[in-house]
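Hi support team,

I've been running sequence recovery on a batch of backbones for a student project. Most finish fine, but this one hangs at about 90% for roughly twenty minutes before it completes. I'm not sure whether the input is malformed or the queue is just slow. I've pasted the structure tokens below so you can try to reproduce it. Let me know if you need the job ID as well.

Thanks,
M.K.
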């Protein structure tokens, strides 16, 4: 099963988008799979919960 698939539980190949993602970073994508940005979480000790 693939958690990134649009046709869950069948793999749609979206895991290929995240192949080069680094740990401790959050990546955002548009609906076409284009990377919009990245947030670096390295050095963040505690996240504020709302």
């Amino acid at each position: 099963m693939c958690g990134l698939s649009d046709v869950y539980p069948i793999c749609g190949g979206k895991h290929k988008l995240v192949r080069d993602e680094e740990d401790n970073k959050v990546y955002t994508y548009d609906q076409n799979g284009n990377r919009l940005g990245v947030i670096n979480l390295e050095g963040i000790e505690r996240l504020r919960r709302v």
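--
Follow-up from support: It reproduced on our side and the slowdown came from queue contention, not your input. The radius of gyration is 13 Å. No action needed from you.
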